[in-house]
Design goal:
There is one protein chain. The chain is α/β, with parallel strands linked by helices. The chain contains 14 helices and 16 strands. Strands 1, 2, 3, 4, 5, 6, 7, 8 and 9 form a 9-stranded mixed β-sheet that branches. It has a 7-stranded mixed β-sheet with strand order 12-11-10-13-14-16-15, sandwiched between helices. The protein is elongated. The N and C termini lie far apart (60 Å).
Length: 518
């Protein structure tokens, strides 16, 4: 990212913007020249604590280096616009946006009116052209994907139940972003909503079959050429002899920091008013075409345009339970234990099956076993697996390979698995809040760790365990220190709760034998 430092004129924040206005776009490449490829700086929100995991996935799958933001839970990377389909198929990202401009050290005025006036004036100085081309291209891909999806779905029932990511329309969506202050308020002074309250109209492409990917690539090339050859309709906001409709928009402001003289609601309102005046777009809080993002973290300011209408973490789940784990967090946990081909991976407390389903989708050469003592949870997980299989069949009806995944109802403290037969245990342990209790955890955790130690292969076995009950877990781990050694701890935010993901390695010590289940 290129961020131009401000000199010390009377308006420090605006000097940065004016310099950027003269020099062209800050974070990305300059305006698309004749024959030059359209590129974009993409911002992605990821589960807090797993920023490095997301950066590694971007490097591995897209070949792009990422920069981890000082604002936890965000990374930035640059890609050519033709790579947008692959960007949407990343497993570790929740939401995506294209960066319009980034200011690493924006100097806000102390007076509220002056600070808000500077944010208003900033709109006219920002390099909107290329980011809006990327947004248009992203939109056209979503429309193509939706058409293909409708064509592929065979029954009205599955069409009603599933969208492209295997998600249930209208299900509750929880955003666990730990921002201090958030408002979505374009021009109109409506009450500030919570985060991610938009009504999705379509879901961007991801995780497609190879043939689909090739088609997407050619679609992207065509769209890039078309986009480069003409000014974006969104950019000028004109009606083009009545052909293009007036776009509807909203501004979402996420603000964190104590030194600002304004609230996120006020920033979104005034910035949104300036966007409306600049583009002649229509403000609409719920049924919008464009979502402009204003992220303020202390003195770091990032302006972006959203590329996802619904968080990608809901891609696998159609049947939700009381504590459904995000697919993106499940991916981070699985990646932490470095699964190898032929590994047997067990989730003994699977709930709705987020971890094993993510594992089967991303590591199909491993064998995944899921279980829970709650029959309702087992039923939900089985339904989610069926939805995943149905989605895969719709993508490629010529082959129905199934998934390397089984589910069973069992007792976590008495698993029907042979001693030393499992390579990896990955699970989300009860926090003692919505399910179980802190008191029960004092007995449950040591028993779980002992049984996990019994089924895991001595010397090479590993476990990745998520819990918010850190005190109880530490005590339980000290009691089984002869079979489990803590290798790494990742601090994460789960629904506003500060939790930890522990990577444990199995020692060579033999676990206590018990009577054979068989």
């Amino acid at each position: 990212s290129v961020v131009l430092a401000a000199a010390r004129p009377p308006s420090p924040g605006m000097a940065e913007a004016e310099a950027a206005g003269d020099a062209g776009p800050g974070p990305g490449p300059g305006p698309a020249q004749e024959g030059a490829e359209l590129a974009a700086v993409i911002g992605a929100t990821v589960p807090t604590g797993f920023e490095q995991t997301a950066a590694e996935e971007v490097q591995e799958k897209l070949g792009s280096a990422s920069r981890i933001s000082r604002d936890r839970g965000k990374i930035y990377f640059e890609v050519p616009a033709r790579s947008l389909p692959q960007v949407h198929r990343l497993r570790s990202v929740d939401n995506l946006f294209v960066v319009v401009q980034e200011f690493k050290d924006y100097q806000f005025k102390e007076n509220k009116e002056d600070a808000l006036k500077e944010l208003e004036d900033l709109v006219k100085k920002l390099p909107w052209t290329d980011p809006l081309k990327v947004w248009e291209l992203n939109n056209s891909l979503k429309k193509k994907k939706t058409k293909r999806k409708k064509h592929n779905l065979q029954s009205p029932a599955s069409s009603e139940k599933l969208n492209d990511g295997g998600e249930e329309q209208g299900a509750d969506q929880n955003n666990t972003n730990d921002q201090e202050d958030c408002a979505q308020n374009p021009a109109a002074v409506e009450p500030a909503g919570g985060q991610d309250t938009e009504k999705p109209q379509g879901v961007a492409s991801r995780n497609g079959a190879e043939e689909e990917e090739v088609k997407e690539q050619s679609d992207v090339k065509d769209e890039v050429q078309a986009s480069s050859g003409s000014e974006t309709k969104a950019g000028d906001g004109q009606t083009d002899e009545g052909e293009a409709k007036v776009l509807r928009f909203r501004v979402t402001c996420n603000r964190a920091g104590e030194k600002h003289s304004f609230t996120s609601n006020e920033a979104a309102r005034d910035f949104g008013g300036a966007v409306q005046e600049h583009f002649q777009w229509k403000a609409d809080m719920t049924n919008f075409d464009v979502e402009v993002l204003l992220n303020i973290h202390n003195n770091e300011v990032v302006v972006g345009i959203a590329l996802t209408e619904e968080s990608l973490h809901r891609r696998n789940i159609t049947h939700f339970g009381p504590t459904t784990l995000r697919s993106t967090l499940a991916y981070g946990m699985l990646r932490l234990c470095d699964p190898q081909p032929t590994d047997i991976i067990v989730d003994p407390m699977c709930g709705t099956g987020a971890i094993p389903i993510e594992g089967a989708a991303e590591w199909p050469s491993c064998y995944h076993i899921a279980g829970d003592n709650n029959p309702q949870a087992v039923k939900r997980a089985a339904n989610n697996i069926c939805s995943l299989l149905r989605k895969n069949e719709n993508k490629d009806s010529s082959t129905a390979l199934g998934a390397p995944l089984d589910i069973i109802q069992w007792d976590i403290c008495n698993l029907p698995l042979r001693t030393g037969s499992v390579d990896i245990v990955v699970t989300d342990m009860p926090f003692g809040k919505r399910i179980g209790s802190k008191k029960k955890n004092w007995d449950l955790y040591p028993a779980c760790l002992m049984e996990m130690g019994r089924i895991c292969t001595p010397g090479t076995g590993r476990a990745v365990l998520l819990t918010q009950d850190k005190k109880c877990f530490a005590k339980a781990l000290s009691r089984v220190g002869h079979i489990w050694r803590r290798a790494q701890t990742v601090w994460v935010n789960v629904g506003g709760l500060h939790a930890a993901v522990y990577l444990l390695r199995r020692t060579w010590e033999r676990a206590e034998e018990r009577r054979s289940f068989w």
